[in-house]
Structure formats: structure tokens, C-alpha cells
Write a structure and sequence with these properties.
Blueprint (H helix, E strand, L loop, with lengths): L5 H9 L4 H25 L6 E4 L2 E4 L5 H21 L2 E5 L3 E3 L4 E2 L3 E5 H4 L8 E2 L4 E5 L5 H5 L1 H8 L4 E6 L4 E7 L5 E7 L4 E3 L7 E3 L5
Parallel strand pairs: 4-7, 8-9
Antiparallel strand pairs: 1-2, 3-6, 4-5, 6-8, 9-10, 10-11, 12-13
Length: 209
């Protein structure tokens, strides 16, 4: 999670006499990275779960059953409620979102009507969601708690859940008025908690663990 704000980074850079040189180097590296990103779009297929993170293509291993079970059950709960009340669109696993620098395929993501009504049937890249769920695994925990946390926050994803299937826990983060994530709850299997997407539905963790 970011400990230094973007404003602090900018001020630190501006305090350096060689700021123009540093900025030029950054722009050059980002331009090269963007070319890799274009190639990534051309090469990515439906067969693999892949993400583009800070210039690197990350290929994910197949998920374990417990991971799939949690994602599948929560998706069914959310999708059923969202469709019933016509709240938007819920995606799972292979929906690729395009942020300013990186591309992710979240475990589950929700888009409200304002965004989802513009979606096309053949669309393969999506804007920042309103809500994201990542289910932890050994290979994804660092990114789920690190760069993805920071990126979702920076792109104003309103709510972010981190689910640990081994611990049977859910961490809920919501943007505060300053657009920073605040942990609003951490729940175990035995506790009820409010579902996201502006609904009034409540669910026990046992529904999807």
C-alpha cells in the first residue's frame, strides 16, 4: 500500500535540480512500456489469465478449488442481485480492466449503470470498476495487497474486498472523502456483513466459503 502520496512525490521531484532530466528518463521508459502494452493487447488470448503490470506480462497459474468455489459463490450472489435490481454488470475472472498504466483481470468486478450501459457485446477492455474483489492465493497476495490496492485506490474504485479463502476472512476497503481507502470491516466466516454496490442485501461469509 502506498505510504507516499502523489503530491509528495511531485514535490520531492520538483525539489531536485535535475528534475527535467529525471522526468525525461521517466517519459522515455513509459513510452517504451506503452509499446510493450500494445504488443500485449495483440498477443493476449482467452486461454490464459494474464495481466500487464508496470511493463511486465504476468501469467497466472490455474486457481485451486477453494479459490474457484469462493469466487463462484460470491459471483452468483452478486450477479443475481444486480440483475434483479438492474444495477449494472458483474464480471468474473476474465474481464480485463484497463487503468492508466496497467491491465488487470480481477477475481470479480462490478460496474454501475453509468459505465455498464455503454458496454458493447464485443468489448474486451473495460474501464475502472466501481467495486473489485480479489481472492488471495500464494502467487497473487503481494500484488493484491500492494500495487493493485494502490492502483484501484488511485483510479477511484469505490470499494475493494480482499478475500482469504484459507482464513475464511473478508477485508472491506472503501474510499473516504479524500479518495483514500479506509478499512471499514474485516469479517470471519461467522459474521454477517453488508454487500457492496449500494444494495441493502446482507450475507454471511458462510454463503461463499
Amino acid at each position: 500500500m502506498l505510504e507516499t502520496s502523489s503530491q509528495e512525490l511531485v514535490q520531492s521531484l520538483l525539489s531536485r535540480p535535475n528534475a527535467p532530466i529525471i522526468l525525461s528518463e521517466v517519459e522515455e521508459k513509459l513510452a517504451a512500456e506503452q509499446k510493450k502494452r500494445v504488443a500485449f493487447y495483440d498477443e493476449v488470448t482467452d486461454e490464459q489469465k494474464v495481466e500487464f503490470i508496470n511493463g511486465e506480462v504476468i501469467v497466472h497459474s490455474p486457481v485451486k478449488k477453494e479459490h474457484n468455489d469462493v469466487s463462484g459463490r460470491l459471483f452468483k450472489l452478486l450477479d443475481t442481485y444486480v440483475k434483479k435490481h438492474k444495477l449494472g454488470y458483474v464480471g468474473i475472472e476474465k474481464v480485463m480492466i484497463a487503468l492508466s498504466r496497467n491491465n488487470y483481470e480481477p477475481g470479480i468486478c462490478f460496474f454501475g449503470q453509468e459505465k455498464s450501459r455503454k458496454f458493447k457485446k464485443d468489448q474486451s477492455l473495460f474501464p475502472p470498476p466501481d467495486f473489485v474483489v480479489e481472492v488471495l492465493s500464494k502467487g497473487t497476495t503481494k500484488n493484491d495487497r500492494g500495487i493493485k490496492f494502490d492502483d484501484y485506490q488511485a483510479h477511484l474504485v469505490k470499494e475493494y474486498w480482499i478475500i482469504d479463502p484459507k482464513e475464511g476472512s473478508v477485508e472491506q476497503y472503501r474510499l473516504n472523502p479524500k479518495s483514500n481507502y479506509v478499512r471499514t470491516a474485516i469479517k470471519s466466516q461467522s459474521r454477517n456483513h453488508r454487500m457492496p454496490v449500494g444494495s441493502r442485501i446482507h450475507s454471511s461469509n458462510r454463503s461463499y466459503f
